[in-house]
């Protein structure tokens, strides 16, 4: 495993001034996500999760410290298609078909669509949307829209995948089904993945380790390793070790 090809966050700080007060959104945050790893980031509202994601996507710059994505600056990584991202609300373009939404990052990067014909067909199959290539987002269920968003995030074959609360809007049953699906997709894609979530169970089910953050200032307070082999199955949600980890993370979130 080599952090050079994963995500390296080195002593990153970022503050904002809003309405006369200084908010330390991130204070001295360091985190290495080795190549091929799956890390879940969990923390209370305002602990800096979105800020960290924005820095890793090159949409914002730290006041001090450094973020490296596959050994490159976040901007360079995004421009070269090494970064894929899927957000909570799927953010699909309503007038574009599923296929055209999946192709969107290629249009943005100025790449030829024709070179990706096979890749898109493979991705549609991977996320279980065969037959819906020509459907519009409004014709899909919430879970299907999220799957389309994940396919879109994977279309450039990114080395690094960022998932920001991808299933936050779904009900518990569907979310667990999607967790199983995401595990399968992730195992095939090999992408180094950082998942931002509010779901303790989702974090444990999917990740190699769970990073717990605290706010004021935004910082990492605990890193908890998840010991389960893969593929993980839904019966894991009832496993005693799973419950013990849930408790440990809940306590870490409460500041214990
Ligand atoms: N552009 C900005 N201007 C002013 N303050 C900001 C800005 N961006 C973030 N903040 C502040 O920085 C802190 C961290 O915000 P951030 O959105 O990163 O938290 P979060 O953990 O993603 O929260 P949530 O779980 O609610 O999305 C908050 O106090 C927020 O108000």
Automatic annotation (TrEMBL):
The keyword Flavoprotein does not apply. Residues 7-240 form the ABC transporter domain. The keyword Isomerase does not apply. PROSITE patterns: ABC_TRANSPORTER_1, ABC_TRANSPORTER_2. Transmembrane segments: none annotated. Gene3D superfamilies: P-loop containing nucleotide triphosphate hydrolases. Pfam families: ABC_tran. Keywords: ATP-binding, Nucleotide-binding, Transport. GO terms for molecular function: ATP binding; ATP hydrolysis activity. Belongs to the ABC transporter superfamily. This is NitT/TauT family transport system ATP-binding protein. It comes from Cohaesibacter marisflavi.
């Amino acid at each position: 495993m080599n952090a050079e090809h994963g995500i390296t966050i080195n002593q990153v700080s970022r503050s904002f001034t809003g309405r006369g007060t200084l908010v330390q959104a991130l204070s001295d945050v360091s985190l290495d996500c080795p190549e091929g790893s799956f890390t879940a980031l969990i923390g209370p509202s305002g602990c800096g999760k979105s800020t960290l994601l924005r820095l890793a996507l090159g949409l914002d710059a730290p006041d001090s410290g450094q973020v490296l994505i596959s050994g490159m600056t976040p901007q360079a990584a995004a421009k070269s298609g090494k970064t894929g991202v899927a957000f909570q609300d799927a953010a699909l373009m309503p007038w574009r078909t599923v296929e055209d939404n999946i192709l969107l990052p290629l249009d943005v990067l100025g790449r030829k669509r024709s070179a990706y014909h096979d890749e898109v067909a493979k991705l549609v199959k991977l996320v279980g949307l065969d037959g819906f290539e020509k459907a519009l987002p409004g014709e899909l269920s919430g879970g299907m829209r999220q799957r389309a968003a994940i396919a879109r995030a994977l279309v450039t074959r990114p080395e690094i995948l960022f998932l920001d609360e991808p299933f936050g809007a779904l009900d518990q049953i569907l979310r667990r089904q999607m967790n199983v699906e995401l595990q399968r997709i992730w195992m095939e894609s090999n992408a180094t993945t950082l998942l931002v979530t509010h779901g303790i169970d989702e974090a444990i089910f999917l990740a190699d380790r769970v990073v717990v953050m605290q706010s004021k200032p935004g910082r990492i307070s605990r890193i908890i390793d998840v010991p389960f082999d893969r593929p993980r199955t839904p019966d894991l949600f009832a496993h005693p070790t799973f419950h013990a980890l849930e408790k440990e993370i809940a306590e870490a979130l409460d500041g214990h």
